Amino acid sequence: MLDGFFKPKAVAVVGASREEGKVGFSITMNLIRGRFPGSIYPVNPKAAEVLGMKCYPDVKDLPDDADLAVLVIPPKACLPTLEACAAKGIRHAIVISAGFKEVGGEGADLEKALRARVQELGIRVVGPNCLGIIDTKSRLNATFAAGMPPVGEIGFFSQSGALCTAIMDWAIGNNVGFSKFISLGNKMDTSEADFIEALASDPETRVIIGYIEGVENGQRFMEVARAASRLKPLIIVKSGRTAAGARAASSHTGTLAGSDRAFTAAFRQSGVLRAESIEELFDFARAFAYQPLPAGPNICIVTNAGGPGIIAADAVEQSLVKMARLSPPTVERLRAALPPTAGLYNPVDVIGDAKEDRYKAALDAVAADPDVNCILALSTPQAMTDYDKYAEAVGQAAKQSGKPFFSAFMGEASLPKAREILRSHGIPQYPYPEPAIKTFEAMVKYRNWLDSAPAAPRQFPADRERVATMFQEARRQGRNQLGEREAREVIAAYGFRLPQNVLTRTVDEAVATATRIGFPVALKIVSPDILHKTDVGGVRLNLQDADAVAEGFGAIDASVRRFFPSAVIQGIAVQEMVAGGKEVILGMTRDPSFGPLLMFGLGGIYVEVLKDVAFRVAPIGPDEAEAMIREIRSFPLLRGVRGEKPSDMAAMVEALERLSQLCTDFPEILELDVNPLLVKPEGSGAVAIDARLALAG
Amino acid sequence: MLDGFFKPKAVAVVGASREEGKVGFSITMNLIRGRFPGSIYPVNPKAAEVLGMKCYPDVKDLPDDADLAVLVIPPKACLPTLEACAAKGIRHAIVISAGFKEVGGEGADLEKALRARVQELGIRVVGPNCLGIIDTKSRLNATFAAGMPPVGEIGFFSQSGALCTAIMDWAIGNNVGFSKFISLGNKMDTSEADFIEALASDPETRVIIGYIEGVENGQRFMEVARAASRLKPLIIVKSGRTAAGARAASSHTGTLAGSDRAFTAAFRQSGVLRAESIEELFDFARAFAYQPLPAGPNICIVTNAGGPGIIAADAVEQSLVKMARLSPPTVERLRAALPPTAGLYNPVDVIGDAKEDRYKAALDAVAADPDVNCILALSTPQAMTDYDKYAEAVGQAAKQSGKPFFSAFMGEASLPKAREILRSHGIPQYPYPEPAIKTFEAMVKYRNWLDSAPAAPRQFPADRERVATMFQEARRQGRNQLGEREAREVIAAYGFRLPQNVLTRTVDEAVATATRIGFPVALKIVSPDILHKTDVGGVRLNLQDADAVAEGFGAIDASVRRFFPSAVIQGIAVQEMVAGGKEVILGMTRDPSFGPLLMFGLGGIYVEVLKDVAFRVAPIGPDEAEAMIREIRSFPLLRGVRGEKPSDMAAMVEALERLSQLCTDFPEILELDVNPLLVKPEGSGAVAIDARLALAG
Fold first, then answer.
1. Binary contact (A277, B432; C-beta < 8 A)
2. Which residues contact B4 (CB under 8 A, 6 or more apart)?
3. pLDDT tens for residues B82-94?
4. Span A292-451: which CATH code?
5. pTM for this one?
């Protein structure tokens, strides 16, 4: 449990200082200024007193109730200090000190040793190299930042300490309440996953927001995020998009998958709302913190001017949000309340000369309409507009309706007081309509996530032993790359259908085999000596009947013997000709954070030129597989154009799930392409024509 | 000349009122409060005095120096009043009054009559149904809005009066200076094009910004915008994206072209910077108004924290902006000025404990680097950060460098004074790095526009007479849709190469023709009685030699006679088989605002499913045609993949220009598809296989 970080009885500041400007001073001062109700114990061998409080020479001298230690001491002193803390029964420590992994070399070694020792001791550590932790509710400010945000219900974690300071400054300036601030620092012992888990079960937190640059254990992150996002919104800014993995990739999938695509997939699969910027992070956070969740995607816009209404409707059109259709009774109610030139349909235009009573009447009318899930109160400062009274009207209408309300009051000079009024009513405010719509879209996405219940991955029968043996054999031979035949055999063991291919030795055998497989078939010479089969007349394609097979068998035999009299011939393979399907590509590459990353795309130029592919982190169930297939831009080609039958969706879904199962069973698979998978029309299945597979080195 | 709207000697307010709350009162009051230095003449038959000024009973009684009239009277009174104005020698009038086109019916009739009369009188009118006009420099506030923005160099026009009020309020609150405000209203006599022209030649305006919902004469708009954007930045928000033309389209081009795509094309072709939101409009406007244009696309980011630096670099990656590569001397200079743990490469990280001197040293060093075209001063409020001093450092560094500087100081509580300091230095400020990058990207786009000099459209020889005759003939027959043969003939007259097609009557003739055209050829029965040629055995494709042609001729003849003994047979056509190219589609549809809108895309599913097409407004020259071709996502397929030869770019460019010329010569063409145009490898030209053409009804 991480509660010890937030609700300590007594905090020891190891390295507390009397010298202003020092971090050890700031932390002690912040604890005092924040009016932390528990005990504060400065620890410093060189002082008897710090900021009027008794100072302890050493951790071992601390009173027994100390249960959280904040370390502001040189990096090398941290390990013995944490040992002393553990001996004292302190189970939680925040290591502010820098000079560890982030400086490389000796610092990295120090951190490694510290991590190992901390795990032995069973003590939980935040940091090192962090800003500290704030819990507004328990009045704990164990950071060296200036000030403390107001109490509220937004919990925030950040991999960047500087961003913490920026956000705290913003929160104070905008009077936005926070429950907890966690600066993760180097994430030596605790990471975002731990705090997502803690904030998810924290009754003081209603919305979790975070800033990360990367995650170490992606699968754990997803598991924790998936659980948390079922309980409360989890909004994350992930930066470092361009820092894609530098590993040279040998597969299509490896080339197309950047680390950012893995994050996008992982976020989507675990219900994380991704904010595209810090601005969006706040826009979203305020809406979720102050407003109820919408029941559906339909917004109604109430405006006092046409132009901004059009701008808002445009923004709606480009989003998942829908324009609500007002019911006839609502329109009648609006007609009664508004002047004849008003706009009675969404966007509802109360006209520029509207006073607050008319604005309020329109807000009330649309909020009462059952088809309206959210209301955007839009306004411009016209001659008769009193923004303060408008703001009060919006607040009252929102209170009565129980539906989410947003405001976009445009301008600046006439806004300061209205802003305060809107804030007091918990109405999220946006300077323009567009960010309001974008924010409501995030709420709609979250609503959809809560309403979704993707089916669990299915387990298909597979010959796991066979694959394990093949991998061992390849490794024994010092190979990481599997041959085409081997790769095909691996996916066949996991239930992929391959073209039938039977070795025959006589004409009669070949004809019988072809008849059994079904025409057309191909014949191919099988000889370890012959690399380029076609060049020696060793291949016949598209043979339509028994006569053609008989003739072809003889011709191949004669031709090969003529071109290559010394060749050892094992026989002639009869192979099923697969025709009449669409080529798709399934692939997998191992992402450094999230592990097996699955890819789906249409084959050929769609993948190579248009890069029209979708990604998911394995394992996936049937719903996720289908969503992945539907996500590509060229999906209409699979649904069928110009009267074609649709391609076999069930077969593609199953193929993706089988691939997912294979990659989950064998973490040693580094990259795998099934390319092409020939998908036939609905009900007719799919056949894997070729595959490539590389094992981790 | 529209100067009379901005620099009048004396303003008459027709409908001036003594009653507070009335528009006629607000306008008179605004003229007084704005301290308009010329004379103000209230006109109202019911008052002898308004706001302490002599009131005139009628326009005819006005003193002779009145040169601008502002009308705030009932709609029906406007026509006689403007006549009286004209008689008085007043050449400019602002009609504030509403109740015209925007209410439909009688109002629309009134406006039509007013427009005609105004044109006869030669008087220029802004409005009706508008907020009025402001010129901050001549202290003219002829609007009924509250307040007046500070003097500055941004000129603004808007189709929405409410947006004018919002922007004015914003400008006052943020202390952003404007030169002129024009509320266009119904655009009865003057439109955005007129004011773009006026602001372009206005020495008091450095940046033109505007909000429009549509334009009437798109070609004039483009002409004026193209000229203006060469002189100063022209930034426009266009809303009403979803109000696409409702006309049912029968061609591919018509289906894919929405009115928004026409605006996007027109803006691009005329150097208009399109802002995606009101927020961007301001972000862009401030940067262009206060900062010099960059010499190139390279930005350098100076930050006091890693996280925000990564966020900024991510935003750069997703834009046209490039990260500057600092030269070795710059890196050395930074190394000397910064502590050992600092980041010496772009983004330059001066580390959290930096005071303003270190921040300034880094800014100076990177600004002096010749590869750096723009500097983003990024910062978070850390313990040692003094934002006010940082702001001063940025201002000084900017002044010394002469390069564009942007700031993104994150936070809120510690910002108010720093904001003022940055503003006093003319440094555009953004709350986060992303909008700063987006804005710099707009500057880079504008720089590229200024540096570009697209070649003029070429004129190709064409048989214009032939086409004119065909159109007349079709019209005479009451047809708007041309048959395939006719459509092909039209484009052939404009120099499109078509497959050769010769009617033959005997086997010998057919063989001789095929030999001349070159093999392979196709044979097709020609008979007015036979619609489905293939069904009666009337088509043979891909005939490789003389024997095959002779055999085919006989077979077609026999088959047709057997199936359809009564058919009148004109002969058998020998047609060139065109093979070995890529199918593209060229098209044109007539946009209600901009006229002939050209389309280019790859044929088949690329157009139909992926909607991967590019648009331009005709006429276009070779550079614009090539840019259009390169714009589609699937362009790599035309450049050649997997070792293919590239498709013939010169032939595609010429085809687009020929299409452009055809549509410009014949405004009666409503829609035209050349589909497919088969483009062969470089140097081998392109052949139009089929075409469809519809004339305006």
1. yes
2. B67, B68, B91, B92, B124
3. 999 999 999 999 9
4. 3.40.50.261
5. 0.86
